[in-house]
Structure formats: structure tokens, C-alpha cells
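Handoff note, outgoing to incoming analyst
You'll be picking up this chain. Sequence as last confirmed:
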Amino acid sequence: MPLLTVASYNIHQCVGRDGQWHPGRIAQVLQELDADIVGLQEVHSRADASKESYQMKFLADVTGFEAIAGPTMLRTNGEYGNVLLTRYPIKSVRRLDLSVPGREPRGAVDAEIEYEGKVIRIIVSHLGLGVIERRRQMKNLLAALETDRSNLCVLLMDHNEWLPWGPVLRWCNEKFGESRAVKTFPAAFPILSLDRIWVQPAAALVGVERYVSVSSRIASDYLPVKGTIDLEKT
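Most recent structure output, in case you need it:
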């Protein structure tokens, strides 16, 4: 039975709960996860002399992934945003602008990869903090998904929706089928389910869990969420 493992992880710019900037700890968590595809949020790739400071390349090099950048902000010392890590061939990439005027720029990586003869569409995103902002962003994202022609579509997202009955979660569940909520924030004592994995067709998502280890408890203020996909159900 061909299984694909995916994960979503807000790495908080590699700053841990102890306030220490330590990309090596995030790399360790990624190695422990041993996923095939990972969507990262809050990645800050600084263009200075330190190898670890260019977080996207450092994490990809250490773990053996291929990285796809999805910057939402260009800073004086680099870029910041989403990153897709994959172990499988990339067929296409586009970057969606989900920004709302007057709010922090937001976006999504929208990529197609090939695995076991199937085309898999992967979306990595991080929605805003404002209620109205999130609703607009989610509507735009769902509109982009109307053209989906892949065998399998996977959404890896920090949705920032605190209320389980909020419209962002409701719309995603209506589109993809209900996804299991696991508590990922804050990492020390998780009480909120801010990260989610959705899959279409929904039956292909056969397992979802948060990943807890000594490293994941401290490497970021979030825990990763990991999903298992059964390709025979696509």
C-alpha cells in the first residue's frame, strides 16, 4: 500500500520557546518527522555570512529536501514567508498573493509534484490574524483551487482560526471534507488547533497527529502536525 507522509510546521523563524535562534533544532525536528513533504511557515532566510541564517537553504541541505520558496515579505536582510520541502520531482510552481491592504502580506505556495505516477497538488499557506482578513484570504485561496485537475490535492496551513466553528474552518471542511483537529499551540502545553492538513479526496487522509518530542517542544512555539495519505484511495 503506497503511503505518503506530509507535515505542516510553523517554525517561528527558528526561534525556540527559550528565545534562542537555533536553526539546527528545527532541522532535527524535520529529520525526526521523516515526512515526504513538509509545508513550513514563518521562514526567515537572511542573506548574510552565516550558513544557518539562510533558513530555507540550510534546512533543505541538512535534511535532503528540495525547497520551494514562497516569500511574502522582502526584508532589508532577506525574505520571509512560506516554504515547501519535498523529496519528489516538482512539475510546476506558482505563488499566490493573498494579501489584504493594510495588513501583513500573506500568500501561498501552489506546487505540483509527481509521486507513484500521480500528480499531487500541494498548497502551503499561513493566514492572517484578523477575522475579516482571514475570510478574504480563504475565499481567494478556494477560488484558486476551483481549477484543480490533480489526482490529489493537499493543503498544509497555519489557518490562525481560534474558534472551531469559524468560517475559515467551515469552508475548508466543506471543500475538502472534515479534517481532524490536533492541538499544536503553544508547543509547551498545546490548547489551540491552529494548524491543519486537508486532503482531497478526504478518504485518502488516513491519519493525523501532532508530533511531540523533546526537540519539538522547544524548537518553535508551535508543534508540527503530520498526516498519512493512502494513495490507493485517490
